[in-house]
Amino acid sequence: MGLREMKKQQTRQAISHQATRLFLRHGFDRVTIADVAAAAQVAKMTVTNYFPRKEDLALDLHEEFVAQPARTVAGRAPGESALAALRRAFLDAVDRRDAVIGFSGADFARMITGSPALVARLREFHEEREHALAAVLAEEAGTGPDDVVVRVASAQLIGVHRVLFEETLRRTIAGEDHDAIAAALTGSAEKAFGLLEPSLEDYAVRR
Questions:
Q1: 3-53 is classed in which CATH architecture?
Q2: Domain residue limits, the chain
Q3: Range 85-117 burial, b when 16+ CB lie within 10 A, else e
Q4: For domain 62-200, which architecture applies?
Q5: Mind listing the pLDDT tens digit for each residue in 111-152?
Q6: In this predicted structure, what is the pLDDT of residue 1?
């Protein structure tokens, strides 16, 4: 990373940090872009250049969140199905207490669930990752992303991730610590992915 890229990354991180601090203190809906710009000591235009939507200031892992399932499937091992790869990757993320699957503090989880705007933006994230996964599956199958099998498979696989993400937030807000959440999620993930085995166990197996 060059000096210019490093400076841009530092500016982005500073804006995100100040935004999160303000959101947690005052609530997402009460904080403006101008408030964030003032706290980060940058112009409003600088904030919107890095974060075109206010919601993305609070949900700064957008790119990783959307890309993770598709990248996991694209990089799966020979003989491994899409279902098996996603289950393996999710359980690995649980072991790491990965923020991308929902591990956060209770204040942050309450901020997300308490804001209709953030709940709606998260819904868009899940839809985007479903489309990204469908694109990978369609390319490998030699079909279009509108193929009904591709669409249904992607919807089911991302649906499991959405349900488990919501469980993580719910347990966080309830006051459970990360270890307790991880133990519960492991069991829930095995059940949820297991429900898909009759239809997807042999689907999209890497040659």
A1: Orthogonal Bundle (1.10)
A2: 3-53, 62-200
A3: bbbebbbebbeebbeebbbbeeebbbbbbebee
A4: Orthogonal Bundle (1.10)
A5: 999 999 999 999 999 999 999 999 999 998 899 888 999 999
A6: 65
Q: State the burial class of residue 25 (Cβ atoms within 10 Å of its Cβ: 0-12, 13-18, 19+).
A: exposed
Q: How many residues does the chain have?
A: 207
For the chain, give the secondary structure using H, E and C. CCHHHHHHHHHHHHHHHHHHHHHHHHCHHHCCHHHHHHHHCCCHHHHHHHCCCHHHHHCCCHHHHHHHHHHHHHCCCCCCCHHHHHHHHHHHHHHHCCHHHCCCCHHHHHHHHCCHHHHHHHHHHHHHHHHHHHHHHHHHHCCCCCCHHHHHHHHHHHHHHHHHHHHHHHHHHCCCCHHHHHHHHHHHHHHHHHHCHHHHCCCCCCC
Tens digit of each residue's pLDDT (9 = 90 or more) over 77-92 = 999 999 999 999 999 9
